[in-house]
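Recap quiz, item 2
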Amino acid sequence: MINRDALVVKICLGMVGLALIGPPSVFAQPVQPAAAAAAAQDPAAAERARLRDDLDRLEAQLRAIKERLQALEPASAPVAAAASAAAAPVEFESRTGPISGYMDFHFNKPEKNDGVLDFHRFVLLFNHSFTDRLRFVGELELEHSLVEGLEEAGELELEQAYVDFLINPKFNLRGGMLLMPVGLINERHEPPSFYGVERPFVDTVIIPSTWFDLGAGAHGDLGKGLSYRAYVTAPLDASQFTADEGIREGRQKGVQSNVRDVAVTGRLEHRGPPGLVLGASFWRGKTGFATPRIHSDVGLFEFDGRYTRGRFEARGEFAKVFIDGAGELNDAVMRTIGVSPNIASQLRGFYLEGGYRIAPSTWTHDLGVFARYENFDTQYRMPAGYVPLAEFDREAWVTGVNYYPDPDVAVKFDYVFLKNRSGVIRAPNSFNVGLGWWF
Amino acid sequence: MTSIRPFFAQLIAAVAVVACVIVFASASAQDAPPKAAQDQEAPRKVVHVTAERFAFSPSEIVVDEGTLLEIQLRSDDTNHGFRIKGTSTNVVIPKRGRGAMSVTFDATTPGRYAFECSKMCGAGHAMMKGSIVVKPRQAAAQAQKEGAR
């Protein structure tokens, strides 16, 4: 009697344990035939056998569940985490993002000249969301590390400071200090995002990057990979144009910018097949406000493309600038300062670049090699009565390596083979080293 | 002494049976899928999105109402954020070569859900936007019919 009671207690405790560790469905399972046969002879042994069977079955179910979970995860890559989102509205909180920025410093060694070290850019970016539809973005740049009054040294520039009014994906408004949406580099110039220590020549002397000024406009995503930006901004100052750097010195940079006339600029960008981005930009404005009675208009058009497939990257850009009234402008400036600036009526430049990431996929670091051919001429066409100078018709081969100890840090080495068509003034080659980072 | 033992044994047995019933009932309630889900499992769609300065590609994802959308996010350069406005989804996409981030979106309600980069990624950070378009079931069926014709 006592033995039977003890057996009942054991069986009940076993059932509780099983219920706690396994799905309840096991209790509905029919007893196995072998266990049933044993039950007739020794009930305790039969119960132990049944419990063992149940445990085996539970283990099998657990393995099957594990396999199903693994099958749901993508096999190709580790997934850092999974998040789920239901379309449940949540209350928006006003928030300020952390300070971000990028920096780069260079060592430049032109042929037959002393090398120089230059902390070229120290840039801080700020952003703040007033609401979900009202945002501020700012970019403050210190160039060449030092700014002193009345001396030609560094520059402290407010490159961006605008407020976005987000209306819908296709149409949004923006006002403040804006980057001109022209070319590959002007809006996308963080050091790890391009090959080479210095920015391409075409993006410096044909498209005057970094090109910014005060204005307002619209931007949006039209769907099917098409996006646009269109702004009305302060124009360039034609009285500052030069022969060797084209329209670059004409940027007013938001310093009490004259807006007797305004400029319009825009960009259309298309992302179609994976890895391919195509863009086209323009800028047009009256630029003669500083030279009364001189009709001076500037027009610029540009188109570009980028393609990335696996380790291979390629990009190209073509830009052309038209300066109406360049002859009158040269005459007017010569009357003022005594020397003709020899401003061209057309400037033209283009480049092609190919790069390849050669580091094995097992490396945590990355290494890219590249070569770029550039052709640029700031006196491509001259106004009547002016002769182009051959020294401004230039071409360059830039080749080198970008080493990325982290995707946001780039150590760059390159060599620039620069030449012009002048038989008198030689363009120097140069060796360059750079360290740039984004945070 | 011997009369007390059967009592305890029966008491323990009764408690054990009640415990089993409770565990069974609660587990059954958890295991049983909702009736609707049993009748018709939500279709699943996986979309791979690449983030780079300063765009998502593709920037527009179209799904039918009732779809369980899984978005696999990868970066071609730095860390980017991925935030779907009006939802609690806000994740950081790992840097290039550091893996992917997966987000699921239950497209239960037709409409346009905007997403954006929520981590400062450079001068053009504010341009990084896109949207998920959830088409009504009727419109999706109509589109399928037209496609079949």
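The two ends of chain B are 87 Å apart (CA to CA).
The first strand of chain B starts at residue 44 and ends at 52.
End of item.
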